[in-house]
Amino acid sequence: MSIPTEHILILASLLFSLGALGFLLRRNVIVVLASVELMLNAANLTFLAGSRAHSTSDALSMEGPVFSLFVILVAACEAAVGLALVIAFYRQKRTVDLEAATELKG
Amino acid sequence: MTFQSTQDAFDAAFSTAALPAVLPAVILSVGALLMLLIEIVPGARASRPIVVLATLVGALFANFTQLSDPAGPVLDGIYASTPETAIWGMLFAAGALLAWVYSIGYYGEKARPFLAEHDMLFLSAPAGMTLMVCSQDLLMFFVGLELLSLPLYARAAFRRERHDSVEAGLKYFLLGAFAAATYLFGASLLYLATGTISVMELKMMMGDTITTTPVFLAGAGLLVAGIFFKISVFPFHMWVPDVYEGSPTPVTTLMATGTKAAAFGFLIPISFLLPTEATGLIAAIALLTMAAGNLGALVQTNIKRMLAYSGVAHAGTILLVIAGYLASGRDDAIGEQALHAALFYLAAYLFTSTGSFGLLAMLERDGEDLTTMRGIRGLARRRPAVAAAMTLFMLSLGGIPATGGFFGKWFVFTVLVQEGMYGVAILGALMSVVALGYYLRVIVNLWMEPLDEADTGRVAPVTLPAGIATAVCALGVLVLGLMPGWFLDLLG
Q: Testing the interface with A: which of B174, B222, B239, B247 to mutate, by most A Cβ within 10 A?
């Protein structure tokens, strides 16, 4: 018996909300980055669920899986740039806490 | 996207008819990759400026050829070249070129060994912007968005010995990643609801019962919210002043003009995804954005930060055309008019904003205190040409007649008045008057305040590249302001 699409959608929405909350509430940059990954994976899950829902026995709906692959690829690029920025930030502040980002305000 | 066979798919992907359409993006990408090679080939480093210039001028020309003879949709409809995308593309290439010229001599000793990397990141930004406006499906736009954003994150933090630069890069990155994730979840929900990611197919579905389901509406909302982050619309505008202030000024220039233009260039054509009931909401968001930008700008003493807030206010003004489009019941003719209004507005904004940020970049070299309201006091006496150009840019940002900024506002408010949104148009016009307050303050400081005698000798002469770039920006502002019909004729 296959899992209904609604259940996958609910799981993905929960993952996305969890990630968004983590992004907004946590102050540790590494945790914030992990929260974004959670949001991206919610999108991946939904893409795959969509592909399953719209595929027939003769034709696969390929946009979903392909989109997921691109998301995974870009997430890797984002991690590379993001972690480099975190390292540069850590070198200056000796912490990865966002509370230390106080140079710019007003 | 259904193919009879794999062979058909390959034929569609490698059709030579697609070449003229994708040429601008290809030229920019090749130029960016060449930058990496230049780094490792001994003796090639000196050719760096030539490659940058050739790439950007080549992209400008490749877009120009698309203007009279656009290729239309290519690559199985995922990419389209129209007169509008040709003009967007020319603007991106011209904006990048001007911003690059202003970056000559801007960076200090510590950043200089990395200028090839800098230029590589620089060239991938217009490539991403071109992909964004030409994209006809949600995946292509996302790829373009990331091609633009990832290099910009790195470039915002380019002066990595400086605390404010690294902090700007980190903030820009975190919010950009959040925006991208929001966009992606929206796109995935739209795909789940409809089974397609093609803009054209989504447009054909509008009116079906499928487009009123909660999944579709949530998807459309999240997708648009993700793009709202990029164009710095209320309540997602908080990051803008910090990031613009901390980034190196030539980078800020591109962030303020190109990113915004590219995001609008995609957002307006896909705003049909929003239900017509959202008209009031979009109008309210646009007006709140204008209010937040203007009120923020009024209290600034740092001009770079003031221009950042002013950019927020301008984004709000352009957003009004989407409200006008939705009010028309998503009428295609109004949609095209809205797109043209935004195109004109952003063309004028690109020249104005590039010129004013560029002048700040030039003044910064003489000491960063020169980019505050206090620092520019009496600058007209020492550098009348710089002060005159800055005055022209401020007048255009304020929307004074005979400048490009005036007609930009005029076309936007025309769309609103046509749709009977008089209240919104009046409120918007009032906000523009408030904005004059801080633009005029710059002009007053430039011309009417006495020179601070203690500063004598600090001001270096204007460099030739910066002078040429400023002249081009001023010419652009005046041509758009005095002969707007010429620009509109380009659109046919």
A: B174
